[in-house]
Structures are given as C-alpha cells and as structure tokens.
Amino acid sequence: MATFKVLPGNQRKKDSVTSRLAAGVNDAAPRVLSQETFKEMLHLERRRSERSGRPFLLLLISSEDLRQSAGSALVSTVTKALGCCIRETDVLGWHHQPTTIGLMMTEIGDASTAIIDTIVQKISGVLQQSLTAEIYCRLSVIVRIFPDQGEDRVFSVDLTKRNLGTRIDQGMKRAIDVAGSLAAIFLLSPVFLAIAVLVKCTSEGPVLYSKKRLGRNGKEFSFHKFRTMYANNDPEIHRTYITKLITGSPDAKQHDGLYKLSHDPRVTPLGRFLRQTSLDELPQFFNVLFNDMSLVGPRPPLPYEFERYSEWHKRRVMELKPGITGLWQVEGRSRTTFDEMVRMDIRYAKARNFWLDLRIMLQTPAVMLTGRGAR
User: Fold this and answer.
1) Is the pTM of this model over 0.85?
2) Which of 13, 80, 213, 370 ranks highest by number of CB atoms within 10 Å?
3) How far apart are CA 137 and CA 312, in angstroms?
4) Where are the domains of the chain?
5) 195 with 273: CB under 8 angstroms?
6) Which residues does 247 contact at the CB level (< 8 Å), separation at least 6?
7) Residues paired with residue 267 on neighbouring β-strands, in sequence order
8) How many CB atoms lie under 10 A from the CB of residue 150?
C-alpha cells in the first residue's frame, strides 16, 4: 500500500497535463539528477511558484530497497517506468540519496484533488506494472503541492484491490475496538478512579495529560494519558532525546524503552510506577471508542517527532490507525531501535488480520506486568 500526502495549491483551470501523461513521452530511463542539483532546482522552482502563484507538484518515491545491493537495478526500473509518465519540462532526481527519488512536475495548471489523483494513479499504475508486488507494497509515495497555502490536506490511497475479505476484516476490527474499549472502561472504572485520586493527591496539576498526536494520514487528535510528570515541565528534554533517537545517535542508546528517557527528572514517583505498568495508558480506551485509535496499531507520534522522520518512516503514520498496543511493544521491547520499530509497524501493516491482532492483545498483559515495552 502506498500513501499520499497532498498539500494544497491554487485552484486554476484544468490544462492538458493529464492527457500528456496518458500519452507518455519517453520509454527510456530518464537522467536522475544528483541530490544537490535536484534540491537546488527545487528551491528555485519554489521561489518561482511563490512569486507567480502557479502551482507545481513534487512527488517523492521512497523505499529502503533502493539502498540495497540490487538498488541500482531497482532505481533503473523505477526511473524507466517514470520515463513514460513525465514530460520534457519535468525534473527527476534524488531528493534523499539513496532512499528517496523526487519527481518535480512543473506547470500542472490545476492543483485540484481530482487532477492530482489522476496524476498519482497514472504514475502508480506504471510502477505497479514494472515492480514486483512485494517491492511495490514497500514503496512510500508522498505528494506535495507548492506554493504552500492553507491547511494540509492528507489522504491515503490503497492501490491494491480491496476484496470482500479485507472489508470484512476491517469491519470486524472496528467492532472489536468498540466492544473491547467499552468493556475495558466498564470493568476498569474502579482502577480509573483510584489512579485519578492518586495522581491528584501526589502532585499538583490535572489528572489527565492531553496532547495533540498524529493518527492515520497525519490527522491530529487529542491523545489522553494519566499525567505522570510534574506540571510545567520542560519539553525540550524530550525533543532533544527524540532527535537523537530517530537519527540513531549513540547518546540515545541508554534508555528505559523506546521514547523513554532514563531517570527523567520530569516524572513523578507515582508516574514511574504508572509508566512501568502502562497503567497511564488506560484513558486511551476513550480514544479507541471515539475512533481516533485502535486497540492494536503503531504508537501515534507527536508533531515534532513526525517532522524529524525520514520519508520511509512516515509510512507508519500514514497507513494505519494508531493503537494502544502493537507488534513492537510485545516483540521489540526496550532493545528495539527506532528504525527496527518502524520496520515492525510496516510489517504489521502488511500482515495485519484478526488473528494477529488477537495474538498481540493476548501477549500485552504479560508485557505490562513485566514492565517491558511500555512507552
């Protein structure tokens, strides 16, 4: 499944871009510019677009497969496929070598969702025909429209045919989410009340910690937890740590678990216990009930975490609804690096089904009791 993020541009009259795409202009592999040259041309095109108001499209194709030993052959296949979709005025090059190829389509005329969808469907179609199903499903495709105007519009397109079994599986997943969250809220209501009283009595501040997180397709929602930190703490401590974690800095290797600092001075004594047992996560059953989250899925990132993601990291956010528990919590635990966690989320996205979700949910209580994998 490939994902698409579209940023809006000006609304203008439709030109002949889609008909030219359909006709194709080149069957050979076009030249791929270096990262330095492509980014310089992108910078100049953005400045031109901001002055003139005429929109252009930037399409980013990312995959870890591009960097592997057979990557050069794959790059040749991808660029040759794109050769039949692009015009002489379009620019192809490395946006982030060696994992992300950029395609800059100038003078698209109309930046409406319908036109962008037509362009993306055409490009995705030739990629699907040129690549194996396994490699194609690992692609991440992000679309940006310049100049930047208004709020982001984010959507996901599943280019594989959704059969009846898939629709039934998704309906069953939502039904289990609703039933499971209602049952948990009802059965654990005494625990909710006890924790709320303890949080309020042991430190100043609200009982709940609510913060904006990113869900499926990058949509923001209010994420709820029991407060585990002192009020008015400094968020820069976590920002710095997250940056080191995502970039793989050696300074981030020693921690209590992914996303968690060792001996975080902001955390209260009660908060340490709640985090170790994952009891601080209980309010997220309301997020599941309100359809912002699922019982099983990737953990939702903070906006500043997402800003530091590489293009291929973003697949874990764009493709799936976030969850309370997931594959990396029950399998990866504290020894998981950030990249390994992303790969687990992507693996879950490809293999997810009712039985996998059930296995993860059954394994979660043991992980909570041992304090492993808690975020």
Assistant:
1) no
2) 213
3) 12
4) 3-156, 165-370
5) no
6) 308
7) 229
8) 8
Token digits of residue 300: 């939702």
Assigned architecture for domain 3-156: 2-Layer Sandwich (3.30)
* Alpha carbons 114 and 110: distance in angstroms, whole number: 9
Angle between helices 113-130 and 71-83 (to 10 degrees): 130
Q: What is the pLDDT along the chain (375 residues), one digit of tens a residue?
A: 444 344 333 333 334 444 444 444 445 667 889 999 999 999 999 888 888 888 888 888 888 888 875 567 888 888 888 877 778 788 999 998 888 899 998 877 766 767 777 787 788 778 878 887 678 777 777 788 887 654 444 334 444 444 445 567 778 889 999 999 999 999 999 999 999 999 999 988 899 999 899 887 778 899 999 999 888 777 777 777 777 777 766 555 444 445 555 567 888 999 989 988 889 999 999 999 999 999 999 889 888 888 888 766 776 776 678 999 988 888 765 556 787 888 888 778 777 788 888 899 998 888 777 765 444
CA 37 vs CA 85, 166, 205: distances in Å: 22, 43, 52
| Residue carrying structure tokens 């203008």 | 12
